[in-house]
Design a protein that fits this description.
This protein is α/β, with parallel strands linked by helices. Helix content is 56%, strand content 15%. It folds into 4 domains: 131 residues, no CATH class; 57 residues, no CATH class; 129 residues; 54 residues, Photosynthetic Reaction Center, Chain H, domain 2. The strands form 2 sheets. Strands 9-8-7-6-11-10 form a 6-stranded mixed sheet, with no helix packed on it. A 5-stranded mixed sheet has the order 2-3-1-4-5, sandwiched between helices. Helix 10 runs antiparallel to helix 11 and helix 12 packs antiparallel against helix 13. The two termini are 34 Å apart.
């Protein structure tokens, strides 16, 4: 009789294993998990993930007598949220390809790791969950220890230190205007509440990765940064020194700021388009072309709408601008079709990884025969030609359809 396949999971959602021990999941097998737990314990003996992994190892030993069982640790990201959950799910899918389990046992420290349970259950059912509770001395249970451990978490430290820091900076900039301080604080809370801060952080991180003095895009990025700073300063100065009513002052400042803002965005997007060729991601050309057109459309509509409220134009001009915007959107879809390389044989495919339908890595594209409509795949067994229609492009990788 075939024994039931079960995987014992330990989920490090905040990515301590990668951050402290330089180990990224999935960590599969008893030997590798024991090594990972030992390495993490040497780096940080107080980390509760150490106890979770050892707890998972104990559960593995108990279950292996009755089931076909495997043990694995999955790692997330310190920022938590979408990025952490995406990593965990990708690693879980990879684990299931190597060990097709019919259910899983989750061993957790009872903190944020429980959040991933619904994600894991979307793949296979949860059989059991075990929470590891560490016995501590009374002194360690003090309020001081609890607060100190909480502040090590970047999310909590951002709240405890970030908000007071923002208030102090705002007070330094404008000590007599409490409304300005309230605006800065409210903006921060709005970004945190809508998780836009994570997206902004991701944009900044991607920008830093792509930034290089050796690329032409450097000129566009540098120009965009200084242009934005100058435009923002000009808009704020126009708002502060204007003697009009506050609503008109606000709209006038926006009207001054719009050309600088949208020109900055377009310069940044042009820089990103240049980087796509350096980073071998030219398959995203249609996406960034659409971003440029969308930026121009928003600029046209917002600019003309603002001028109506300011009384410097009429409704006829606004409707004309809306018509121009619709024409640009039609052109966006027309030219976007020609830039879409997902179903085409083009030099842009060179160097991309190739996977089969099951998600297994096969090799990479080393040659492109555009005239014949074929790509050449290099694998461990040698080179293989793939014809157009037998593959498709998905998120920076070539996926075979046969």
């Amino acid at each position: 009789m075939t024994r039931k396949k079960i995987v014992v999971l330990c989920v490090d959602r905040d990515g301590d294993l990668e951050k402290k021990a330089r180990l990224r999941g999935p960590i599969i097998g008893k030997k590798d998990n024991l090594r990972a737990a030992s390495k993490l314990a040497l780096k940080d003996p107080e980390d509760s993930d150490v106890n979770s992994i050892f707890g998972a190892l104990k559960e593995y030993e108990v279950l292996r007598e009755r089931y076909d069982v495997e043990i694995a640790s999955l790692t997330g990201h310190p920022r938590l949220g979408v990025e952490a959950d995406t990593r965990v799910l990708e690693q879980f899918d990879l684990l299931l390809r190597k060990f097709p389990a019919t259910g899983f046992v989750l061993v957790t420290d009872g903190r944020e790791d429980d959040v991933v349970i619904p994600l894991l259950q979307s793949r296979i059912p949860l059989i059991s969950k075990k929470t590891i509770v560490v016995k501590q001395a009374r002194g360690l249970e003090s309020t001081y220890y609890t607060i100190k451990e909480a502040l090590k978490d970047p999310v909590f430290s951002m709240i405890f230190f970030g908000i007071p820091g923002i208030v102090l900076i705002a007070f330094f900039i404008n000590p007599l205007n409490l409304r300005f301080i309230a605006f800065i604080l409210g903006l921060y809370l709005l970004l945190k509440g809508t998780t836009l801060d994570l997206k902004i952080y991701g944009w900044i991180r991607d920008f830093i990765k792509a930034f290089s003095f050796e690329r032409i895009s450097f000129v566009f990025y540098l120009t965009a940064i200084f242009l934005f700073i100058f435009g923002l300063w000009d808009g704020i100065r126009n708002f502060i020194f204007s003697e009009q009513k506050i609503f008109i002052r606000f709209l006038s400042s926006l009207d001054v700021f719009y050309p600088i803002l949208f020109t900055t965005i377009i310069l940044f997007l042009v820089g990103r388009i240049i980087d796509l060729f350096y980073m071998k991601k030219a398959y995203k050309l249609d996406e960034y072309f659409n971003y440029v057109i969308a930026t121009v459309v928003v600029w046209i509509i917002l600019g003309s709408a603002t001028k109506i409220f300011l009384g410097v134009t009429d409704l006829t001009n606004f409707l004309l601008n809306v018509g121009i915007s619709l024409l640009l959107i039609v052109l966006m879809y027309f030219f976007g079709f020609f830039l879409d390389v997902r179903e085409r044989v083009t030099k842009m495919l060179l160097g991309l990884p190739v996977f089969n339908k099951q998600g297994l890595f096969l090799g990479k594209v080393v040659e492109v025969e555009k005239e014949r409509g074929k790509i050449v795949l290099e694998t461990k067994e040698g080179k293989k030609k793939i014809s157009k229609g037998e593959f498709r492009l998905e998120g920076g990788k070539v996926v075979l359809s046969v």
